Amino acid sequence: MDVHTVTEGAETFTANVYLVTGEHTVLVDAGTMAGVEDVIAEHTADLDAVVLTHQHGDHVGELDAVLDRFDVDLLAYGDHPRRTEEIDDGDTIDIGDERFDVIHTPGHADDHVSLVSETTIFSGDVVVHDDGAFDDGSFGRTDMAGQSREVLIESIERILERLPEGVEHMYAGHGEAFHGDVRAVIERALERAERREPKYPE
User: Fold this and answer.
1) What pTM did the predictor assign?
2) Is the pLDDT assigned to residue 154 strictly greater than 90?
3) Helices 182-193 and 149-162: angle between axes, nearest 10 degrees
4) Residue 26 in contact with residue 96, Cβ under 8 Å?
5) What is the pLDDT of residue 201?
6) pLDDT exceeds 80 at position 55
7) What are the phi and psi torsion angles at 157 (to 5°)?
8) Given this model, what pLDDT does residue 200 score?
9) Distance CA 87, CA 16 (A)
10) Is 202's pLDDT higher than 80?
11) Residue 177 near residue 5, CB atoms below 8 Å
12) N-term to C-term CA, the chain
């Protein structure tokens, strides 16, 4: 299973967009980088599906362009006019060469899900490796309308409860991909979130 960050080098603000190739070629999120569909086409002529971690604008800005170019299924937890398959906590999805469990992880967004296999997690924005606020274990912001630090903490705890011991690759919505002791990174993110201090002090 190969994972390509197709928004690498983007000059506009965007979430990370991951193209996962293998038996099931899947795009995780769509981002806001104009021309992302062209970058995807440099790697593959066909997609099997697009999966959304959540529907904040920086994750779905170019979604229509991707769906129009590749005419694929859209899998999402939250309602979307182009969704073809609803996913829910406890479902499984084939991505690349692995099967991923869907974990509902709200707090940063009500419709947020994380995707976990025996080796890999696509964590969206709920937990990231580095984002300018913290390095080596950070968490999604919870200071905007509809967000909740308490719910986010519960979501990170849920990830840790269901995270297989062999997970060593983390692909988050922002920051760099991480390869190593993913559980330790998520535990540090949880510890920092539990301080209940503003993530971005004014």
Assistant:
1) 0.97
2) yes
3) 160
4) yes
5) 79
6) yes
7) -60, -40
8) 82
9) 21
10) no
11) yes
12) 42
pLDDT band at 159 (very low <50, low <70, confident <90, very high): very high
- The candidate with the shortest Cα–Cα distance to 127, out of 77, 88, 178, is 178
What single string gives the DSSP state of each residue in 86-135?
E--TT-EEEEBTEEEEEEE--SS-TT-EEEE-SSEEEEETTEES--SS-S
| Tokens linked to 42 | 């440099």
Q: Using alpha carbons only, how large is the chain's radius of gyration in Å?
A: 16
Sheet-wide strand order for 120-124: 92-95, 98-104, 113-116, 120-124, 169-172, 178-179
**∠ at Cα 144 (139, 145), nearest 5°?**
130
- The pLDDT-based confidence of 148 (bands split at 50, 70, 90) is very high
Long-range contact pairs involving 83-87 (C-beta distance under 8 Å, separation at least 24)? 85/49, 87/51, 87/113
Tokens 């920086």 belong to 58
SS3 content of the chain, % helix, strand, coil (to 5): 25, 25, 50
State the pLDDT at residue 19: 98
Strand partners, 138: 128
